Amino acid sequence: VQLQASGGGLVQAGGSLRLSCAVSGGTFSRQTVGWFRQAPGKEREFVAAVFRGTNTYLADSVKGRFTISRDNGKNTVYLIMNSLRPEDTAVYYCAADPSIILSSIRFSRSYGHWGQGTLVTVSS
């Protein structure tokens, strides 16, 4: 399974971005796909995930601002980020795995396949 993350960039606080994660190989509909982020000097943290169906999960820090969705026809997962804050600045990674159980969806170690990351910078 290969993942390609894209859509990062520089945006002012309050702005919006849409990240895309294109997944190839494997059976996309069976993959749980998650987004994680890592800011300089900080540990990688969970942002959002969409389970094998359409159930979605968001970190408390992004609820009400971010949305995750999947398009099975395009083998792509989107992270729509609104009302961005400077503290959202990080490298964003998408990850996938077909074997994740629901209780493990927020843990990076649960995901066996990772994309290369895309940088999001939010200026104040």
How many helices does DSSP assign? Answer: 0
Approximately how much helix is present in the residues? under 10%
Mean model confidence by pLDDT:
96
Percent of residues in beta strands? over 45%
Features:
0% helix, globular, 49% strand, mainly beta, 124 residues, four-stranded antiparallel β-sheet, seven-stranded mixed β-sheet
What does this structure look like?
With 124 residues, the chain is mainly beta. Helix content is 0%, strand content 49%. The chain contains no helices and eleven strands. It has strands at 2-6, 9-12, 17-24, 32-38, 45-50, 56-58, 66-71, 76-81, 90-97, 113-114, 118-123. The strands form two sheets. Strands 2, 4, 5, 6, 9, 10 and 11 form a seven-stranded mixed beta sheet that branches. Strands 1-3-8-7 form a four-stranded antiparallel beta sheet, with no helix packed on it. A hairpin with a 4-residue loop joins β7 (66-71) and β8 (76-81). The chain is globular, with a radius of gyration of 13 Å. The N and C termini lie far apart (37 Å). The relative contact order is 0.32.
